[in-house]
Design goal:
By secondary structure, this protein is an alpha/beta fold. It has 10 helices and 12 strands. The strands form 2 sheets. A 6-stranded parallel beta sheet has the order 1-4-3-2-5-6, with helices on both faces. It has a 6-stranded antiparallel barrel with strand order 7-8-11-10-9-12. Helix 6 links the parallel strand 5 and strand 6. The two termini are 21 Å apart.
Amino acid sequence: MNTYNSIFDFQNKKTIITIGTFDGVHLGHKKILDKIISNARELNCESTVLTFFPHPRIVIQNGEPLKLLNTIEEKKLLLESIGLANLIIHPFDREFSQLSAEDFVKKILVEQLQIQKIIIGYDHRFGVNRSADINDLIVYGNKYGFEVEQIEAQEIDEIAISSTKIRTSLEKGAITLANEYLGYNYFFSGIVVKGNQLGRTIDFPTANIQIDEEYKLIPKNGVYFVKSKINNKPVFGMMNIGTRPTVEGKNQTIEVHFFDFDEDLYDKKITIEMIDFIREELKFESVEALKNQLVKDKQICKNYINNRKFNIVE
């Protein structure tokens, strides 16, 4: 897959395009993306997704916080895995938001991206103040010589519902449900940094994960059964997201205890896949009581592994 950081870096290719955020690149999105890819193959064009960063809502609503299912890098990996030819991530700013609907179509879609066909939702709006809709796009398609295929309301509603349901599920700790909607295990990546090393003193050493992208949605606090791939080998573990109330912690941390693993991970970037929610984060009377609970949590996770009572999307 070719990735472009600006519309204006893209040249000399006839395209079939869709436009959108595609946050999560979940099963609903894949229906549309598969349609783009198959159409491109039939018409000898290149399948292309045009998306924007930062998210337009953040720019238009003056930096209002917005949590997303994917970072840009994660989105690239997911789109590449389904066979997309081109991903254009155009910088979205106030100036770009003021582009008129016809200028966007003529200068961007037609002249720059050589659009042959666009597959887009019935509720898609574009141009300054989101003034144009699908009907305007059809008019422009007739004027400038490209085809417009409308994605039906039911399909769009299913996609919108899926995205909302995934976010809600993650915020409630319903990981298996979120994974079902996604079609893969929800994941995030971060650098392993030094923590207070309490885990080592109770025989539960942890990798403390630092995620730099503040907009990445982190599931609710609690203990989770997780998987990672380290040195190209699958490694299972349990992860705590929370403030460590037993030791009077204040800030949220993400700590992973890997099973049957003893390697130095400091300063390495690792990816964590979330498989299931084990329990809420609790405050224990003592560190010893915490350790006893961790032993039980570990056994629960080991039982998952031994009995294969989970569905991991490889």
